[in-house]
Amino acid sequence: MWQKFSFYDFRVIAHYLGVLMMFLAAAECVPFVVAVVLGEWQPASHYLFGIGVAIIVGSLLRLILPSPGKLTPKQALAVTGFAWLALALLGSIPLYMSGHYGSMLDAVFEGMSAWTTTGCSLVQDIDHMSIADNTWRFTMQCIGGQGVVVIALSLGLFGRAVDSSLYSSEGRSEHVIPNIMQTARFIVRFSMATIVIGTILTTAACLFIGMAPVRAFFNGLWLAVASFNTGGMTSMSTGIIYYHCAPLEIVIMVLILLGSINFTLHIEVWKGHIEHFFRDIEIRTLFVWLSVILVAFVATLCTAKVYDDLPTLLRRAVFTVVSAFSSTGFQTISVNQMTTVISSGALLIIIFCMAVGGSAGSTTGGIKVLRIGVLVKELVAYIKDLLAPASARQVVMYYHVGRRPLSHDLVRANLVVLLLYGVAFLITTIVTVTFGYAAAPSMFESVSMVSNIGMSCGITQPGMPDPLKVLYIVDMWAGRLEYVTLIALLVSIIASIRPKRRVRAR
Question: Which residue ranges traverse the bilayer (predicted)?
Answer without folding.
Answer: 12-38, 44-65, 77-97, 138-158, 190-212, 241-265, 286-307, 313-333, 345-367, 413-440, 477-497
